[in-house]
Amino acid sequence: MHVPLINLRRLYEDLKPDIDAAIGSVLNSGRFILGDVVAQLEQTLAHYVGTSYALGVASGTDALLLALRVIGVGQGDFVITTTFTFFATPEVIIRLGATPIFVDIEPQTYNMDPEHLDIVIKHLPPSVRSRLKAIIPVHLYGQSADMDEIMGIATKYGVPVVEDLAQALGAEYKGKKVGSFGLLGGVSFFPTKNLPAFGDAGMIFTDDSTLYEKIKTYRIHGATKKYYYPDWGYNSRLDAIQAAILSVNFKHLEEWNERRKAIAAKYDAKLHGVVETPAKKHDRTHIYHQYTIRTPERDNLRKFLQEKGIETAIHYPIPCHLQPALSYLGYRGGDLPVSEKVSKEVLSLPIFQYLSEDEVDYVIDTIIGFFR
Ligand SMILES: *Cc1c(COP(=O)(O)O)cnc(C)c1O
After folding, report:
1. CB distance 190 to ligand 1 below 6 Å
2. What is the pLDDT of residues 312-328, one digit of tens each?
């Protein structure tokens, strides 16, 4: 048996008539950039996440980039984030001329450790502290970071929060959806994410009308009226064909997240005690963008699964603070020990809405077989 990490052909085959019709209607409209389809999707998703506004942009990366830009992050500033994230999170900080400061993670949830966050801010030299412009928690693998703690610390120091919910659309913390806690939030619709586009796409969420108006101009080069630029911006729009596809897929998001949870529950029940299964917290939901186990046998297990036809992935093999591109920051091995240890032990198993029961059973049996 071959078990893929994800197979979007299965999604297209299932929803083909609706998706083809949605694409066809955009082609017939002749309007390909922004327009009604995008505006409609923005409204739908703002309502879903629980914010006043949402803005479609070209990718999840751009969602974070524009969010930081509109709150004034620039040359010489500092932004705190977790080191255990996809590289796009620190990358947008650097692209604005600012410097990322990394925080370690909680060993169970793999999310930003609030205690460490507090210590890091407390020990910043005054010259850095005064230029700390944002904190970016990442809701890794589809589970919310500890938002009460993080928002409390951010408020204490007067620093805005920008949420990276690229992996967690629909996840809740104390009954409230992620993306509605921070001043701004950015989501990705990259094809492998929980709500997939069939190309690159992203969205920004906020309750702040001033920031909303600003982002609207920044995604069209900074123009406040046609060919008039008080400030430079970006070419970053959610295109209408992707918005049409997303509108179809969004109707299934809740059902898909439930299916992921059901697969995760099966993995939990059978693999608990064999490997370290994802931590569950009573105050938040996990939508399992990834189902990531942990074992010191990671590399051997991965090889074994590959030989048995099971695809797996490592999210992430090198924490951001040790990436070669960021060596100029001066971090060394041992600086953020939890992330460094976890990066050697995590393994993401196949989990997506169209995985069959037989495939799930095969993954479980093969893992149990490896440890027997
Ligand atoms: C996918 C992802 C991004 C970037 O999203 P793109 O749409 O690929 O640009 C940013 N942060 C995290 C945590 C992600 O998983």
Report:
1. yes
2. 999 999 999 999 999 99
Bridge partners of residue 105, in order along the sequence:
112
Rounded to the nearest angstrom, the distance between the alpha carbon of 302 and the centre of ligand 1 is 24
SS3 call for 333: coil
pLDDT tens column, 114-164: 999 999 999 999 999 999 999 999 999 999 999 999 999 999 999 999 999
CA–CA gap between residue 17 and residue 197 (Å, rounded) = 16
Q: Looking at the whole model, is its pTM more than 0.90?
A: yes
- Cβ neighbours for 354, distance < 8 A, ≥ 6 positions apart: 7, 10, 11, 14
Q: What is the identity of the amino acid at 59?
A: S
User: Per residue in 27-60, pLDDT tens?
Assistant: 999 999 999 999 999 999 999 999 999 999 999 9
Check if 88 has its Cβ closer than 6 Å to any atom of ligand 1: yes
155-192 burial string, b = 16+ CB within 10 Å, else e? eeeebbbbbbbbbbbbbbbeeebbbbbbbbbbbbbbee
Three-point CA angle 234, 240, 246, nearest 5°: 110
- φ, ψ for residue 58, nearest 5 deg: -75, -20
